[in-house]
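User: What would this chain look like folded?
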Amino acid sequence: MGFNCGIVGLPNVGKSTLFNAITAAGAAAENYPFCTIDPNIGVVPVPDKRLDTLTKLYKPRKITPTAIEFVDIAGLVRGASKGEGLGNQFLSHIRDVNAICHVVRCFEDENVVHVDGNVNPTRDIEIVEAELILKDLDTVEKKYADTEKRSKSGGKKIRSEADFYSRIRDHLLGSRLAIYEKPETPDELLWLRDLHLLTAKPVMYIANVDEKHLTVQNGYVQQVRELAAKERAKVVVACTKIEAEIASMPYEEREQFLHELGVKESGLDQVIHEGYALLDLITFFTAGEKEVRAWTIKHGSYAPQAAGEVHTDFERGFIRAEVIKYGDLVALGSEQAVKEKGLLHIEGREYIVKDGDVILFRFNV
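Assistant: Here's the prediction, encoded as C-alpha cells.
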C-alpha cells in the first residue's frame, strides 16, 4: 500500500462524486447531506510510467503497482465534534489515515444546495478545521486529566508527560492545528503519536471547480491557496465532473482528452503526486520474470527497511541489496548490460534507498 487519505469536507462539496470518479467504487452521491452513511473505502493503483517501462524490459508474468487508499467520510457540519450530523461516528474513521484530503467547494450552482446557504471556501475550511480541533481537544483533555492524576504519585517522566498534554491543549485552545506544535524530545514524539490527533495529520486541499475554471483560477480557488499558504498545505484544483468523465474512458484516451482541456494531468494524478510529496514518500521497484512490482517507502529509508516492505523475513535476515539505477537500466536496455558495464551496485545496511531504484534483496533466515 502506498498511503491512505481520508476525504473530508462539508456536505455537497463534491466529496463522494470525486471518490466515485477516482475509485469507481460506486459510493452514493446525492444532492442532500449525509448520503454517505458508512465510510467508503477504495483502493486505486498508482499510475507510474516507470512500471510500464520495466514491464517491457522484463516481460513478467505479473505486474503489481503500488496503491493509494481513499476513505470517503460523510460531510461534516458545525457540531460534528459533539455528534451533530453523525459527526462522532465519522471523525473516528479519520484517525487511522496518513493524510487528509479536504475537498472545498469552489463553484457556483443553484441546483446544488450549500449547507450554509452560499459558497465561501474560507468559512467552509474553518468550520471543518474547528470541528477537528474540538475533537482533538476532547481527546487531549481526557489524556491530560488521567496523566495529571497519576503524576501526583508518579515520577518526573509522568510529570513531563502531563506538562506536554497541557501544552498541546493550550495550543488547540488557540484554534491552532496540532501539526504545528512540534515535539521537542523523543518521548514527546511518542506521546503525540499515541494521541492519534486529527489535526496532526498533513492536509491537502482539493479545490472543486466547474469546468470553465479548471485552467482559469477563480476567486474561490485563490481563497483556498491563501489559506493553504499559511498552513504550508498542498492544493489540487480539480473538477469532479471531468474526473467522472475521465474515469469512464479507456486509459489510452485520457491523455488526449486532458490535452484538449489544456490540463497536464488528472485530479487523481495530482492528488497522488502531491500526496507523495506531502508525506515524503518515494517508490522503488523489484523486477524479474515472475513479477515487476512497485513499492512505496518513506524518503530516507535504509535498505533493510525497504526489504521489510517486501517481506518481514527480508529485513530480519538482510544480507545485502543489489541495486540498479532506473536510468541506467533504461539507457542500457537490460539488466545484463547494466552488469557488464559494472553499474550494478552492491549495498549494505547503511544504504539509503533512492526513488526509482530497482532492487534485488539477498537475505538468510
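Residues 186 and 192 are 10 Å apart (CA to CA). If you want, I can go into more detail on any region.
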